[in-house]
Design goal:
seven-stranded mixed beta sheet; alpha+beta
Length: about 140
C-alpha cells in the first residue's frame, strides 16, 4: 500500500500549497524535468521550464490573488513507481482577474512516476467542468 503523504497522493497537498503561495519554485519541484502539462484552455507545455513559465505569467497577473482547493485524489497504481491520479480542484479568483472574483472547478488527470525515490508529475491535464450544450462553466455540489 502506498503512503498517502509520501506516496503519489501527497502531491495534491504540495500542489495546493505551491499554488496558494504563488511559489513557482515549489511548483516546479512537483514536476519531473521532462514533464508535460495541458492547461484548462488546451495549451500544451513540454518541460518543467515551460510549465513554470506559463504558470508564472498568470500568477503574476490574473491569478495573483487566486486560491486553489484540491479534493482527495483517486489513485490508481500502475506499478511500484507509477500511478495515475484524478482529482478535483476549485479555483477561486480574486479582483485581479478581468472577470472579477469567480470560481471554476476542474478535473486534473496526473501521471506520477517515482525516480530516485521521489514522486513527481510526469504528465498533467486540467479540464474545466462546463455544460457541454452551452459551454457555460458549472460548479460541482460540494
Amino acid at each position: 500500500m502506498m503512503d498517502p503523504e509520501s506516496g503519489p497522493a501527497g502531491i495534491t497537498s504540495r500542489f495546493e500549497a505551491a499554488w496558494n503561495a504563488h511559489d513557482m519554485q515549489a511548483f516546479a519541484a512537483l514536476f519531473h524535468p521532462d514533464a508535460t502539462f495541458v492547461n484548462r484552455f488546451g495549451t500544451y507545455w513540454r518541460g518543467v521550464e515551460a510549465i513554470v513559465a506559463g504558470h508564472r505569467a498568470i500568477h503574476e497577473t490574473v491569478y495573483k490573488d487566486s486560491t486553489l482547493t484540491i479534493d482527495r485524489p483517486d489513485v490508481d497504481a500502475i506499478s511500484d513507481d507509477a500511478a495515475i491520479l484524478h482529482f478535483w480542484s476549485r479555483l477561486t479568483t480574486g479582483v485581479a482577474h478581468p472577470a472579477g472574483p469567480h470560481k471554476v472547478d476542474t478535473l486534473i488527470l496526473a501521471v506520477l512516476t517515482r525516480r530516485d525515490g521521489t514522486w513527481r508529475i510526469q504528465a498533467d491535464e486540467n479540464v474545466t467542468l462546463v455544460d457541454p450544450r452551452t459551454g457555460a462553466v458549472i460548479l460541482r455540489d460540494l
